[in-house]
């Protein structure tokens, strides 16, 4: 006879499950196989003298058994899983839909660009910085909302409970909100560009927005062809980071375009880590992408080779840092502070290696790989903070560093 903690109705529990989940899973299987009308016979096995159910009235137990079996049947037929994913609270779903950590992709390029401008000129415009920050957040909101809208159209988000469209119950509401954010954000960027006299910066940001549009919006939807990562790299790296540098370096002196090796280096690094976030966001939805014909890089490569590529990417990232330091493209302060982020880079690699194979994991651990992109967000934010601090210190402490112009 099984103990009460492991009520299994004669079914062997799965050793990989925790007791509560093991109890739920085994009882659910029992209820699928045994008619509810037999609950009385099942309960009689537990009512012998000294039995574990002694002292509980048989009628009460029968009622409870019927309720539990009906619940198990309902969850089984409605797609309920052992990890109780359907039980996520609405508050948690709203938090996931907001994707607050993802807004680091708006903050980091702007802040690093501002630090590169400060290194060059020793001037920081708080008014321009916060205007651009608000505008950038609105544009990223457009990206997130419109992505949910168009993925809803293709069916990619059919079972995604944290989709904004599913939460609102209105595709048109999410669509209107998305494009209102884009319009207001673009107006803010344009106003800053005009007031600073930097039309080139506005063109670069326009190209960054175009990359976002053709990435996910019809009729292009290049993300469905596996081209999202190159577009992401260009948009958040060379385009956005360089544009923010140009907008924030403008002074009362002559307005001219000057691109330095420092700006190019930091824009490549920021583009690299932003792209890594996007790449790792595919790990938990490979099967869903396949079902709707979305050929993401991980659909093409598989998660095993994808995990290897993540390791190669991290090695490449820190190799670039060393190369930029040796060549003098970045000040030594940036290299030293950025080296402190290496443990986070190693953590990204190990996490993906241990959790990428969703099919091999039991149902309890299946959702763990979802967190891969958030580990990449941490790396992105930490590296951005290190580069920003390094550039500011190069100006204020080690005043001997002079950025090398590429062309002007």
Order of helices and strands: HHHHHHHHHHEHHHHHHHE
Rounded to the nearest angstrom, the distance between the terminal CA atoms is: 83 Å
Strand content: under 5%
CATH topology of the largest domain: Farnesyl Diphosphate Synthase
Which structural category fits the helices and strands?
mainly alpha
Output the number of helix runs. Answer: 17
pLDDT < 50 runs, ≥5 residues: 1-59, 61-65, 68-86
Shape: globular
Please, what is the average pLDDT?
79
Count up the domains: 2
Number-wise, the strands total: 2
Written overview of the protein:
The chain is an all-alpha fold. It folds into two domains: 66 residues, no CATH class; 320 residues, Orthogonal Bundle (Farnesyl Diphosphate Synthase). Helices cover 66% and strands 1% of the residues. The protein has 17 helices and two strands. It has a two-stranded antiparallel sheet. The termini are far apart. The N terminus is likely disordered.
Short précis:
Pfam families: UbiA (PF01040). Strands 1-2 form a two-stranded antiparallel ribbon.
How is this fold's topology laid out?
Elements (H helix, E strand, L loop, with lengths): L18 H15 L5 H6 L13 H20 L12 H9 L5 H18 L4 H29 L9 H5 L2 H26 L2 H18 L11 H22 L9 E2 H20 L5 H6 L5 H5 L1 H25 L4 H8 L2 H14 L16 H25 L8 E3 L1
Antiparallel strand pairs: 1-2
Helix pairs in contact: 1-3, 5-6, 5-10, 5-11, 5-17, 6-8, 6-9, 8-9, 9-10, 10-11, 11-14, 11-17, 14-15, 14-16, 15-17, 16-17
């Amino acid at each position: 006879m099984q103990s009460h903690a492991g009520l299994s109705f004669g079914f062997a529990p799965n050793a990989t499950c925790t007791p509560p989940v093991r109890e739920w899973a085994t009882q659910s299987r029992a209820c699928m196989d045994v008619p509810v009308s037999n609950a009385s016979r099942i309960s009689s096995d537990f009512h012998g003298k000294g039995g574990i159910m002694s002292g509980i009235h048989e009628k009460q137990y029968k009622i409870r058994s019927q309720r539990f079996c009906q619940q198990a049947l309902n969850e089984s037929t409605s797609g309920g899983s052992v990890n109780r994913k359907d039980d996520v609270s609405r508050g948690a779903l709203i938090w996931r839909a907001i994707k607050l950590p993802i807004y680091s992709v708006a903050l980091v390029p702007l802040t690093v660009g501002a630090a590169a401008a400060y290194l060059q000129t020793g001037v920081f415009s708080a008014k321009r910085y916060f205007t651009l920050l608000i505008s950038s957040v609105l544009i990223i909101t457009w990206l997130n909302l419109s992505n949910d809208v168009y993925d809803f159209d293709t069916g990619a988000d059919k079972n995604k409970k944290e989709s904004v469209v599913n939460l609102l119950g209105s595709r048109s509401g999410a669509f209107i909100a998305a494009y209102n954010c884009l319009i207001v954000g673009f107006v803010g960027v344009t106003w800053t560009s005009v007031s600073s006299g930097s039309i080139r910066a506005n063109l670069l940001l326009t190209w960054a927005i175009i990359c976002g549009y053709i990435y996910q919006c019809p009729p292009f939807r290049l993300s469905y062809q596996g081209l999202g990562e190159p577009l992401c790299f260009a948009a958040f790296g060379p385009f956005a980071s360089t544009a923010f540098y140009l907008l924030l370096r403008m002074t009362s002196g002559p307005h001219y375009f000057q691109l330095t090796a420092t700006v190019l280096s930091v824009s490549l690094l920021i583009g690299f880590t932003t792209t890594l976030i996007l790449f790792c966001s595919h790990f938990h939805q490979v099967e869903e992408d396949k079902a709707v014909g979305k050929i993401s890089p991980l659909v093409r490569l598989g998660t095993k080779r994808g995990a290897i590529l993540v390791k190669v990417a991290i090695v490449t990232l820190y190799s670039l840092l060393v190369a930029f330091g040796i060549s003098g493209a970045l000040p030594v302060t940036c290299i030293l502070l950025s080296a402190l982020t290496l443990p986070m880079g190693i953590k990204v690699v190990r996490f993906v290696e241990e959790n990428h194979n969703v099919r091999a994991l039991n149902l309890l651990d299946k959702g763990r790989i979802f967190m891969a992109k958030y580990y990449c967000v941490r790396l992105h934010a930490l590296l951005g903070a290190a580069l920003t601090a390094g550039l500011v210190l190069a100006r204020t402490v080690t005043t001997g560093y002079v950025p090398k112009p590429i062309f002007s």
